[in-house]
Amino acid sequence: MSEPRIRLGMVGGGRDAFIGAVHRIASRIDDHYELVAGALSSTPDKAIASAKDLGIAEDRAYGDFKTMAIREARLKTGIEAVAIVTPNHVHYPAAREFLKRGIHVICDKPLTSTLADAKKLAKLAESSGALFVLTHNYTGYPMIRQARQMIAAGELGDLRVVQTEYAQDWLSENLEDTGQKQAGWRTDPARSGVGGSTGDIGTHAYNLASFVTGLELRAVCADLDSFVEGRALDDNAHVLMRFDGGAKGMLWSSQVAPGNENALALRVYGTRGGLEWRQEDPNYLWYTPLGEPKRLLTRGGAGSGADAGRMTRVPPGHPEGYLEGFANIYSEAALAIKARRAGGKPPADAVYPTVQDGLAGVAFVAACVASSKRGGVWVDV
Amino acid sequence: MSEPRIRLGMVGGGRDAFIGAVHRIASRIDDHYELVAGALSSTPDKAIASAKDLGIAEDRAYGDFKTMAIREARLKTGIEAVAIVTPNHVHYPAAREFLKRGIHVICDKPLTSTLADAKKLAKLAESSGALFVLTHNYTGYPMIRQARQMIAAGELGDLRVVQTEYAQDWLSENLEDTGQKQAGWRTDPARSGVGGSTGDIGTHAYNLASFVTGLELRAVCADLDSFVEGRALDDNAHVLMRFDGGAKGMLWSSQVAPGNENALALRVYGTRGGLEWRQEDPNYLWYTPLGEPKRLLTRGGAGSGADAGRMTRVPPGHPEGYLEGFANIYSEAALAIKARRAGGKPPADAVYPTVQDGLAGVAFVAACVASSKRGGVWVDV
Amino acid sequence: MSEPRIRLGMVGGGRDAFIGAVHRIASRIDDHYELVAGALSSTPDKAIASAKDLGIAEDRAYGDFKTMAIREARLKTGIEAVAIVTPNHVHYPAAREFLKRGIHVICDKPLTSTLADAKKLAKLAESSGALFVLTHNYTGYPMIRQARQMIAAGELGDLRVVQTEYAQDWLSENLEDTGQKQAGWRTDPARSGVGGSTGDIGTHAYNLASFVTGLELRAVCADLDSFVEGRALDDNAHVLMRFDGGAKGMLWSSQVAPGNENALALRVYGTRGGLEWRQEDPNYLWYTPLGEPKRLLTRGGAGSGADAGRMTRVPPGHPEGYLEGFANIYSEAALAIKARRAGGKPPADAVYPTVQDGLAGVAFVAACVASSKRGGVWVDV
Amino acid sequence: MSEPRIRLGMVGGGRDAFIGAVHRIASRIDDHYELVAGALSSTPDKAIASAKDLGIAEDRAYGDFKTMAIREARLKTGIEAVAIVTPNHVHYPAAREFLKRGIHVICDKPLTSTLADAKKLAKLAESSGALFVLTHNYTGYPMIRQARQMIAAGELGDLRVVQTEYAQDWLSENLEDTGQKQAGWRTDPARSGVGGSTGDIGTHAYNLASFVTGLELRAVCADLDSFVEGRALDDNAHVLMRFDGGAKGMLWSSQVAPGNENALALRVYGTRGGLEWRQEDPNYLWYTPLGEPKRLLTRGGAGSGADAGRMTRVPPGHPEGYLEGFANIYSEAALAIKARRAGGKPPADAVYPTVQDGLAGVAFVAACVASSKRGGVWVDV
Questions:
Q1: What is the Cα–Cα distance from B107 to B132, expressed in whole angstroms?
Q2: Does B157 touch chain A (CB under 8 A)?
Q3: ipTM at complex level
Q4: What is the pTM of this model?
């Protein structure tokens, strides 16, 4: 703990942004990072003003990410890692500038706005000496780690069925035309890519299912809709999934389901048992061994194992939430970055979503869109 | 209330049966029926012994349903209605004998084991002077009536998304080969028809969605599995649905999902709000008007309307359950039968599933099976 | 099952009554009774009209309970049992007439409106050859039987803490002055006795705690209020309890707690584990063995034992409710009555609340009222 | 936000401590503080080593709190505030050293281990120029602020009933004799004071009830137990409460209730409505306006007001938890400290528990213990 903090920069996340503030809190919770530089907006004036708000030194408040990458790479105590928290279409160009200068990248999801960019970024990240961490933050929840560990240990037997969904209601009406910034870019193909709800939240659901089950997706059959008039991207998606090995799945993503705030859920069933988890109540994991009573596992409570325990700060019954889950990804990344700093390999138990997971997510969206455009046919992923 | 009870006969439901006992309790709860005759098993000896168990007079304990239909039709105080509670393949031949003699039929679901039988039965029932009531019992739950009334009144606006599922775990292993009677016939194509979980419980989920929303199903795309080795019929089904008017749906039926006892659920979302209901907690209905807090409507409680109120026996907080929901179908049928007895028309508010609903259910199963057999393509219903 | 039904009469329960209809349904569910006589109201005309509504033969529709007792006792096929479902102050005089003629009594709770009556009735019932069954119906819930069985088997170890409560909101305002019949008599000392919420619902909570734990109450300290202006009886009661052997408890009864419909709950904690149950979701029982994950036991599900199983009609996930719980008391009584009819003893496993439980309940109310009147001091029960 | 961070010291919270780490995270979440000095243990070596773990400069790692107070007060950029996170008996002597030197104190609860100390500390804090913040952290939950605002606005009408409880199970067995540090001091009168569960968690429940309702407690009647053999302090407490103005309450605190991890709950009922909140699911607040359906208010969701909104970092459905609630107290304190730094008054909306609340809590414990010792009589607070 007495190691120096990781020097962190940020691209995006200025005034009016949402996810940037989340990343900053997440980076602070376990005290592994200090934010020392930023190109916080694509509008230079706003970038500078936003940096001032955050107490970033004037000479490290940049008007654009490229300048930041160039200059920071030259500083003796320049940033060691950068958080990229812009709209999707900026992920690739921004990440490129840092990766090629050996600066580790912590990037928001989805990986990119196009499959082509995703492939290029994956290639670049793999060949770069720098680490690439994708903030599919829901994988940071302790009870998700618990579920993953149980499945890996065979406690569910052979997996048969995966049910996942991510439902919201905030886009039930045409919010994007009111000037709301978040709605604006998330419904805009130029900035988001081909997926609407599929890209914004469907990728989370798909990623979570993959992360927990370890299953490889083989094909999808999707039925996408843009229920709100005038909306270019999907706001509701119904997806059937087939996994290697024969397991089957359903995925529902929606941003037009009134009464759902941020209702990400995952249920997995195998020959020996079932697991059920809901993001809005993340400290609980329902576990049913076949033929036995349902058990309510709790974060830090009886029956909760090592993988969840590593990610737990306070005792059972003291709820941890979204920010702690997010912080767990930052802290896993910190383990890897500090190991690298010390010249070693990232420790095996520093588990976080990678560029390959990001590529898989963008491919998933592309397959869903292709399937739906062709009338809802099965498309290989 | 002082009208004489309806004289009821029963086909099936002898020793070891499950649903027959449910029908009998359901028929008693509101005291509209008395059970006076029965052909309670396809094995004559067992039929007679079962009748004796139930206190049915010896001369009205029949060894087969045809004899029962013939004799009862001749009696001055013969049965006015018959409950058919056999395995699926007997529904049609049994119903035929009673319908053609003017005896009202209360029949368990699914309507028949084949689509051909379903069409013949529908035709026969329509031309018969007798009533045909299909016990899709879940439509008898008060909060389902509440949901239906709210949607019909436009409280959800235009419907967009329907999510329904019916998950169980009792067939997670090969129970049918252990000699368990229920598992035996329900997994046997000869007695159940082409649908396994789709026929046994998927039809309930589909019927419930139709009943509550009033939407007409246009096409399905289904992915069916028989996960348990050696099982001939599906035990898990993933179905995408397209409704007339543009609403979309997903339906999951499973009998291999550990931790699910009888988890039928329905969620409906429209432009103005959402509704969520779970069969295992049937006295609650979640209602979210778009942009307002979620409300928990309760059977008989504030905000619960006339359609639910008609079906409610005890005050809010005094839970009614499965048997009362089932009884509600019997009592709706009794209203119609007594009106007919008095020479009138069934009252408009006697609402129960009909032979047409049954036909739609069998057609739904046939379409799912056809879709899945062809690799998971869209099939019109 | 082929034994003849028990011939049942009813005192009270005419038009506008609530609990009488509940008793009638409860008596029908398992088909052990037929209602053949009644003195259904203290107003003779209403009594006769109510009997007609229910299809009771004219010559067995009585204007008062005494006449009914006398005449039925003389009939060859007179009633074998009577259900007394009047306001509390009539329980004793009515029960007396039947008990002394050897007719079994099934009586609503609380036992009587005064402690003096309760003692006399207890004495009479004990000396009578007839059975006395008190419908503390909540003891009929399967998961309550499950809880009782587990505690008796030592699965909770030595009991330490009992938390019970029964909260409602229907008397939050002065409903009694609007002419509402139920509110009228339940807030009237002349008809209810000295307890308001304590008598009406607190006795249920106390009885349930006693039934499940087997603990003997030694002393109470109570703080009673009549929050609604002008109300003579308590509408809210806070009670501390001390049991023999050192266990402690709290009991809250309230009819002025907005948001509580019929919120009876029981929680019991011992050295080895804890149990939690809520009447509004009665098919669930939470069980935590100390140091292990919480388990959700379900009616008929895995981990549910013989005592609950005896009382279960349909598979797990098919919810049973208030009426089935009530019916279970009637069916337990039927076992005893039929055994008596056959000249035998009631079977050991026919478990229902008795006149002694009723006496304990009235004594509990008296002790609470006495404690509160003296400023909230400890009073021995 | 660009103001310099508050320089913070810490007393207690070294290796093996629990609550110190919580305070540190809470102080970081909103970036208002930097930890620059510490006397982290009563064992000087451990204090120094613990400071090193945390990256505190060597010359500001102190072996005892008095030295720290003296030296920091002399530094130009010495600490502006100190967090005191020791066992209870150290709160007073430590706070005294800082307060008298004008250093603001953020102190864990309960205020002190004795009522005498509490009175002295209250007097000192009032006369000091420094601020005193007591971390009754549960008052920092957004939905608790929401509840408080609603009650203050009269949405519940006149309050009648307060039900609060705080149940845990971690002391169900004799953990203190196993060497577990937390159990050790919390069950030791010399370090905790006269209250066991009452002091450790009962004070939280009492404080929360007071904070939300604004009611003044007048008298208590308490029944305390030490169920675990050999335990000197109470591990279970049943308390009746009478408030000024006529409202009544019950409070249960327990550390021997298996199945309860950290089950703090508050329910408040008035003439116009009811509110219910549970700490383990803190993002929800149930609100029932009398005669209307129950509503589930969510943090940041529809129907959630300004007081909750101020304390909310992420959108509804993204759960915040214990650490964020704790951070809210730190951030409220920061508002006050920064205002003071700028020479102004703390802003009116910086709301946090004060030394007076702490004194009330210690008085509450003293009254409960006195009541119980005298057999469970009413004692004025």
A1: 7
A2: no
A3: 0.96
A4: 0.97
